[in-house]
Design a protein that fits this description.
The protein is built from 16 helices and 7 strands. With 317 residues, the chain is α/β, with parallel strands linked by helices.
Protein backbone atom coordinates (compact mmCIF):
# COMPACT_ATOMS: atom_id res chain seq x y z
CA UNK A 1 0.00 0.00 0.00
CA UNK A 2 1.23 3.49 -0.79
CA UNK A 3 1.91 6.04 1.91
CA UNK A 4 -1.35 6.95 3.60
CA UNK A 5 -2.10 10.67 3.74
CA UNK A 6 -5.79 10.51 4.62
CA UNK A 7 -7.21 10.28 8.10
CA UNK A 8 -7.24 6.60 9.03
CA UNK A 9 -10.80 6.91 10.34
CA UNK A 10 -11.88 7.86 6.80
CA UNK A 11 -9.38 5.78 4.82
CA UNK A 12 -10.52 2.58 6.53
CA UNK A 13 -14.20 3.43 6.97
CA UNK A 14 -16.27 0.46 5.71
CA UNK A 15 -18.26 1.11 2.53
CA UNK A 16 -20.34 -2.07 2.47
CA UNK A 17 -22.27 -4.01 5.09
CA UNK A 18 -19.99 -7.03 4.69
CA UNK A 19 -16.98 -4.86 5.56
CA UNK A 20 -18.38 -3.93 8.96
CA UNK A 21 -16.87 -5.53 12.02
CA UNK A 22 -20.10 -6.49 13.74
CA UNK A 23 -21.65 -9.69 15.14
CA UNK A 24 -23.88 -11.76 12.89
CA UNK A 25 -26.81 -10.70 15.08
CA UNK A 26 -26.43 -7.14 13.80
CA UNK A 27 -25.71 -7.94 10.16
CA UNK A 28 -28.73 -10.24 9.92
CA UNK A 29 -30.98 -7.46 11.23
CA UNK A 30 -29.63 -5.00 8.67
CA UNK A 31 -29.23 -7.14 5.56
CA UNK A 32 -32.70 -6.34 4.21
CA UNK A 33 -32.00 -2.61 4.15
CA UNK A 34 -34.50 0.09 5.03
CA UNK A 35 -37.50 -2.04 5.82
CA UNK A 36 -38.14 -0.08 9.03
CA UNK A 37 -36.77 2.76 11.14
CA UNK A 38 -33.59 1.73 12.93
CA UNK A 39 -31.78 3.11 15.99
CA UNK A 40 -28.22 1.92 16.61
CA UNK A 41 -26.98 2.45 20.16
CA UNK A 42 -23.84 1.65 22.09
CA UNK A 43 -20.29 2.70 22.89
CA UNK A 44 -18.47 5.34 20.81
CA UNK A 45 -16.38 4.15 17.88
CA UNK A 46 -18.18 0.87 17.20
CA UNK A 47 -19.27 1.64 13.63
CA UNK A 48 -22.75 3.08 14.13
CA UNK A 49 -22.34 6.14 11.89
CA UNK A 50 -20.58 4.11 9.19
CA UNK A 51 -23.52 1.71 9.21
CA UNK A 52 -26.01 4.55 8.78
CA UNK A 53 -24.26 5.78 5.63
CA UNK A 54 -24.05 2.25 4.23
CA UNK A 55 -27.80 1.77 4.73
CA UNK A 56 -28.61 5.15 3.17
CA UNK A 57 -26.23 5.16 0.22
CA UNK A 58 -28.72 3.86 -2.37
CA UNK A 59 -31.41 6.35 -1.36
CA UNK A 60 -31.82 10.12 -1.42
CA UNK A 61 -30.84 11.02 2.14
CA UNK A 62 -30.59 13.93 4.55
CA UNK A 63 -27.90 13.86 7.25
CA UNK A 64 -28.53 15.62 10.56
CA UNK A 65 -26.14 15.61 13.50
CA UNK A 66 -28.74 15.92 16.24
CA UNK A 67 -26.22 16.96 18.88
CA UNK A 68 -25.31 20.05 16.82
CA UNK A 69 -28.51 20.72 14.82
CA UNK A 70 -30.70 19.96 17.79
CA UNK A 71 -33.54 22.50 17.89
CA UNK A 72 -36.97 22.67 16.31
CA UNK A 73 -35.68 24.96 13.53
CA UNK A 74 -33.87 22.06 11.87
CA UNK A 75 -37.15 20.12 11.80
CA UNK A 76 -39.06 22.99 10.21
CA UNK A 77 -36.38 24.27 7.82
CA UNK A 78 -34.61 21.07 6.73
CA UNK A 79 -36.38 17.90 7.73
CA UNK A 80 -39.97 18.66 6.70
CA UNK A 81 -39.03 20.13 3.27
CA UNK A 82 -36.86 17.07 2.56
CA UNK A 83 -39.57 14.60 3.54
CA UNK A 84 -42.39 16.45 1.78
CA UNK A 85 -40.83 16.69 -1.69
CA UNK A 86 -41.27 13.87 -4.18
CA UNK A 87 -38.10 12.00 -5.10
CA UNK A 88 -38.13 10.27 -8.48
CA UNK A 89 -35.45 7.96 -9.82
CA UNK A 90 -35.90 6.01 -13.02
CA UNK A 91 -39.44 7.34 -13.33
CA UNK A 92 -40.61 5.91 -9.99
CA UNK A 93 -40.90 7.05 -6.41
CA UNK A 94 -37.71 6.52 -4.47
CA UNK A 95 -37.79 5.77 -0.75
CA UNK A 96 -35.99 8.55 1.10
CA UNK A 97 -33.86 8.28 4.22
CA UNK A 98 -33.10 10.62 7.11
CA UNK A 99 -29.91 9.98 9.08
CA UNK A 100 -30.15 11.24 12.67
CA UNK A 101 -26.65 10.91 14.07
CA UNK A 102 -26.06 11.36 17.82
CA UNK A 103 -29.80 11.46 18.45
CA UNK A 104 -29.25 11.44 22.22
CA UNK A 105 -27.98 15.03 21.96
CA UNK A 106 -31.26 16.51 20.69
CA UNK A 107 -33.65 18.74 22.64
CA UNK A 108 -37.12 17.93 23.96
CA UNK A 109 -38.71 20.18 21.33
CA UNK A 110 -36.76 18.32 18.62
CA UNK A 111 -38.05 14.96 19.90
CA UNK A 112 -41.66 16.15 20.07
CA UNK A 113 -41.57 17.54 16.52
CA UNK A 114 -39.76 14.45 15.24
CA UNK A 115 -42.54 12.13 16.41
CA UNK A 116 -45.10 13.93 14.26
CA UNK A 117 -42.84 14.01 11.20
CA UNK A 118 -42.04 10.30 11.44
CA UNK A 119 -45.73 9.45 11.55
CA UNK A 120 -46.70 11.77 8.71
CA UNK A 121 -44.05 10.54 6.27
CA UNK A 122 -43.92 6.88 7.29
CA UNK A 123 -44.79 5.66 3.78
CA UNK A 124 -42.10 7.64 1.94
CA UNK A 125 -39.21 8.09 4.39
CA UNK A 126 -37.16 5.86 6.66
CA UNK A 127 -35.43 7.28 9.71
CA UNK A 128 -32.17 5.70 10.82
CA UNK A 129 -30.38 6.98 13.89
CA UNK A 130 -27.47 6.45 16.24
CA UNK A 131 -26.76 7.28 19.86
CA UNK A 132 -24.32 6.43 22.62
CA UNK A 133 -26.82 6.66 25.49
CA UNK A 134 -30.25 5.18 24.82
CA UNK A 135 -31.56 6.36 28.19
CA UNK A 136 -31.23 10.01 27.06
CA UNK A 137 -33.86 9.51 24.34
CA UNK A 138 -37.56 9.49 25.33
CA UNK A 139 -39.08 6.02 25.28
CA UNK A 140 -41.86 7.33 23.06
CA UNK A 141 -39.17 7.83 20.39
CA UNK A 142 -36.94 4.79 20.57
CA UNK A 143 -39.35 2.15 21.85
CA UNK A 144 -42.32 2.65 19.55
CA UNK A 145 -40.82 4.32 16.46
CA UNK A 146 -37.51 2.51 15.94
CA UNK A 147 -36.02 -0.95 15.98
CA UNK A 148 -33.25 -0.44 18.58
CA UNK A 149 -30.07 -2.47 17.92
CA UNK A 150 -27.25 -2.64 20.45
CA UNK A 151 -23.78 -2.25 18.94
CA UNK A 152 -22.14 -3.39 22.16
CA UNK A 153 -21.48 -7.13 22.53
CA UNK A 154 -24.31 -8.84 24.39
CA UNK A 155 -22.36 -11.93 25.49
CA UNK A 156 -18.82 -13.30 25.78
CA UNK A 157 -18.99 -14.98 22.38
CA UNK A 158 -19.70 -11.68 20.63
CA UNK A 159 -16.94 -9.92 22.57
CA UNK A 160 -14.36 -12.55 21.66
CA UNK A 161 -15.45 -12.44 18.02
CA UNK A 162 -15.12 -8.65 17.90
CA UNK A 163 -11.70 -8.65 19.57
CA UNK A 164 -10.48 -11.23 17.07
CA UNK A 165 -11.78 -9.22 14.12
CA UNK A 166 -10.37 -5.99 15.52
CA UNK A 167 -6.96 -7.65 15.78
CA UNK A 168 -7.15 -8.76 12.15
CA UNK A 169 -8.04 -5.23 11.00
CA UNK A 170 -5.33 -3.57 13.11
CA UNK A 171 -2.71 -6.11 12.03
CA UNK A 172 -3.47 -5.42 8.37
CA UNK A 173 -3.05 -1.68 8.91
CA UNK A 174 0.17 -2.13 10.88
CA UNK A 175 1.55 -4.18 7.99
CA UNK A 176 0.48 -1.51 5.49
CA UNK A 177 2.28 1.27 7.41
CA UNK A 178 5.37 -0.84 8.15
CA UNK A 179 5.02 -1.05 11.92
CA UNK A 180 6.09 -4.33 13.48
CA UNK A 181 4.29 -5.96 16.39
CA UNK A 182 4.03 -9.11 18.47
CA UNK A 183 0.79 -10.97 19.04
CA UNK A 184 0.99 -10.20 22.76
CA UNK A 185 1.30 -6.44 22.21
CA UNK A 186 -1.37 -6.46 19.48
CA UNK A 187 -3.81 -8.20 21.82
CA UNK A 188 -3.08 -5.71 24.62
CA UNK A 189 -3.47 -2.76 22.23
CA UNK A 190 -6.89 -3.92 21.02
CA UNK A 191 -8.14 -5.00 24.43
CA UNK A 192 -7.07 -1.70 26.03
CA UNK A 193 -9.19 0.28 23.57
CA UNK A 194 -12.06 -2.16 23.06
CA UNK A 195 -14.76 -1.62 21.81
CA UNK A 196 -13.70 1.76 20.40
CA UNK A 197 -12.39 0.96 16.91
CA UNK A 198 -12.22 4.66 16.07
CA UNK A 199 -9.81 5.21 18.96
CA UNK A 200 -7.65 2.41 17.58
CA UNK A 201 -7.61 4.11 14.16
CA UNK A 202 -6.65 7.45 15.72
CA UNK A 203 -3.84 5.87 17.72
CA UNK A 204 -2.53 4.03 14.65
CA UNK A 205 -2.55 7.37 12.84
CA UNK A 206 -0.58 8.92 15.69
CA UNK A 207 2.00 6.13 15.57
CA UNK A 208 2.28 6.48 11.80
CA UNK A 209 2.67 10.25 12.00
CA UNK A 210 5.39 9.92 14.65
CA UNK A 211 7.27 7.53 12.33
CA UNK A 212 7.14 4.68 14.84
CA UNK A 213 8.54 1.38 13.55
CA UNK A 214 7.22 -0.88 16.28
CA UNK A 215 4.04 -1.30 18.29
CA UNK A 216 5.24 -1.65 21.87
CA UNK A 217 3.85 -1.50 25.39
CA UNK A 218 5.50 1.91 25.77
CA UNK A 219 3.94 3.61 22.76
CA UNK A 220 0.59 1.95 23.52
CA UNK A 221 0.62 3.74 26.86
CA UNK A 222 1.59 7.04 25.25
CA UNK A 223 -0.85 6.97 22.32
CA UNK A 224 -4.04 8.14 24.02
CA UNK A 225 -6.43 9.85 21.62
CA UNK A 226 -7.05 12.37 24.40
CA UNK A 227 -3.45 12.89 25.50
CA UNK A 228 -3.50 16.58 24.51
CA UNK A 229 -6.73 17.13 26.45
CA UNK A 230 -5.36 15.34 29.50
CA UNK A 231 -2.12 17.31 29.29
CA UNK A 232 -4.15 20.51 29.08
CA UNK A 233 -5.86 19.59 32.37
CA UNK A 234 -2.47 19.14 34.02
CA UNK A 235 -0.66 22.04 32.37
CA UNK A 236 -3.11 24.87 31.60
CA UNK A 237 -2.38 27.26 28.79
CA UNK A 238 -3.63 30.81 28.64
CA UNK A 239 -7.45 30.70 28.88
CA UNK A 240 -8.05 31.60 25.24
CA UNK A 241 -5.47 29.04 24.08
CA UNK A 242 -7.31 26.43 26.17
CA UNK A 243 -10.53 27.47 24.50
CA UNK A 244 -9.11 27.28 20.97
CA UNK A 245 -7.61 23.81 21.44
CA UNK A 246 -10.81 22.34 22.85
CA UNK A 247 -13.05 23.96 20.22
CA UNK A 248 -10.80 22.89 17.35
CA UNK A 249 -10.16 19.33 18.51
CA UNK A 250 -13.23 18.25 20.47
CA UNK A 251 -16.29 20.17 19.26
CA UNK A 252 -17.61 17.02 17.56
CA UNK A 253 -16.47 14.64 20.33
CA UNK A 254 -17.94 16.14 23.49
CA UNK A 255 -19.50 12.92 24.79
CA UNK A 256 -16.35 10.91 24.13
CA UNK A 257 -14.10 13.53 25.71
CA UNK A 258 -16.22 13.76 28.86
CA UNK A 259 -16.27 9.97 29.03
CA UNK A 260 -12.48 9.82 28.64
CA UNK A 261 -12.03 12.33 31.46
CA UNK A 262 -13.93 9.96 33.72
CA UNK A 263 -12.61 6.63 32.49
CA UNK A 264 -9.09 7.17 31.11
CA UNK A 265 -7.81 10.31 32.81
CA UNK A 266 -7.22 8.64 36.23
CA UNK A 267 -4.70 6.22 34.69
CA UNK A 268 -3.07 9.08 32.78
CA UNK A 269 -2.82 11.11 35.99
CA UNK A 270 -1.28 8.15 37.81
CA UNK A 271 1.46 7.90 35.18
CA UNK A 272 2.04 11.59 34.45
CA UNK A 273 1.56 13.22 37.86
CA UNK A 274 1.29 10.66 40.68
CA UNK A 275 1.87 13.37 43.28
CA UNK A 276 -1.53 14.85 42.37
CA UNK A 277 -3.55 11.65 42.73
CA UNK A 278 -4.98 13.00 46.00
CA UNK A 279 -6.97 15.42 43.81
CA UNK A 280 -8.61 12.56 41.89
CA UNK A 281 -11.84 12.36 43.97
CA UNK A 282 -12.56 16.03 43.29
CA UNK A 283 -11.82 15.56 39.58
CA UNK A 284 -14.19 12.61 39.23
CA UNK A 285 -16.98 14.28 41.18
CA UNK A 286 -16.65 17.31 38.92
CA UNK A 287 -16.64 15.20 35.73
CA UNK A 288 -19.78 13.38 36.89
CA UNK A 289 -21.52 16.71 37.50
CA UNK A 290 -20.65 18.02 34.04
CA UNK A 291 -21.63 14.76 32.34
CA UNK A 292 -25.06 15.14 33.96
CA UNK A 293 -25.34 18.84 33.12
CA UNK A 294 -24.58 18.26 29.44
CA UNK A 295 -28.12 17.01 28.81
CA UNK A 296 -29.63 20.35 29.86
CA UNK A 297 -27.48 22.91 28.03
CA UNK A 298 -28.01 24.48 24.61
CA UNK A 299 -24.39 23.97 23.50
CA UNK A 300 -22.73 20.80 24.90
CA UNK A 301 -19.26 22.12 23.99
CA UNK A 302 -19.65 24.73 26.74
CA UNK A 303 -20.00 21.85 29.22
CA UNK A 304 -16.71 20.32 28.11
CA UNK A 305 -14.95 23.69 28.28
CA UNK A 306 -16.29 24.26 31.79
CA UNK A 307 -15.27 20.75 32.87
CA UNK A 308 -11.69 21.21 31.67
CA UNK A 309 -11.37 24.63 33.32
CA UNK A 310 -12.71 23.17 36.57
CA UNK A 311 -10.31 20.21 36.47
CA UNK A 312 -7.43 22.61 35.91
CA UNK A 313 -8.48 24.52 39.02
CA UNK A 314 -8.70 21.33 41.08
CA UNK A 315 -5.36 19.93 39.96
CA UNK A 316 -3.45 23.17 40.26
CA UNK A 317 -4.95 24.60 43.42
Amino acid sequence: MSVINELFTEKFRPQKLEHLIAPERIKSQLQNGLVQNILLFGSPGTGKTSTLFILAKDHPFLYINASEERGIDIIRDNLIPFCSTISLEGGRDKLKCVILDELDGATDTFYKALRAVMEKYAKTTRFIASCNFLNKIPEAIWESRFLPISYDPINNEEQEYLITEYKKRVAAILKAIDISYTEEVLHEFVKKNFPDLRALMNKLQSLHNSKATELSMTNIANSSSYADLFDLCLHPKKPYDNYKLIVNQYSSRVDEALSALGNDFPEYLSDAAPARLDKLPGVLISVAEYQYQKSFVIDPLITLLAAVFRIQQILNS
